[in-house]
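User: Before I run my own analysis I want an independent prediction to cross-check against. Here's the chain; please return only the structure tokens and, at the end, one sentence I can use as a sanity check.
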Amino acid sequence: MLRTRNAQPSLWESVLPEICLRLPVQLQRVDEWLDDERFFAPFRAHFDARLGRPSVPLETYLRLMFLKHRYQLGFETLCREVSDSISWRRFCRIDIDAKVPHPTTLMKITTRCGEQAVAQLNEVLLDKANEAKLVRLGKVRADTTVVSADVEYPTDSGLLAKAIARIGRLVRRIKAAGGARRTRFRDRRRAAAKRVRLLASKLHLRAR
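Assistant: Structure tokens:
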């Protein structure tokens, strides 16, 4: 059964200090943006309005998924972190004395709704950003031309020369930071490049 909003806040929140009820600035802005009924539309087709077990409130699911992707968390880590954080609980609209949704429940909802719901969410987000004049959704016309060209495959000598150059840059950075002061270093980039050109010219003559 579809649920979009959570129940009324718990009475426990009335005894918490005001500083505990404040959201960080970034989460406050995201919370205001997600507080829009249009973000629920992509999920309505996947849930019955009256039958079945009550689902995780969509406002909670959306905010949990934001935290998951914003901080690159797995489902289990996400639920554990939200459970231990008052500010994240408030952001996700989960009461202080309520249980955080189980990781497998979030996985099932994500699998059920699929990529189509994500694509529709992105469309709603773009429309909302366009209304707020944060982005411009004008059409772009591009004219492309395909030009045939030889593919320059990497050679062993060329890769070796690039490795020598990269090692040289790394050693210079180490010395600039104050490390390996007694170690002598000689830049071999020019010698390596010269040797590569010599090998290439000999191979070119041999191919004739």
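Sanity check: The mean pLDDT is 83.
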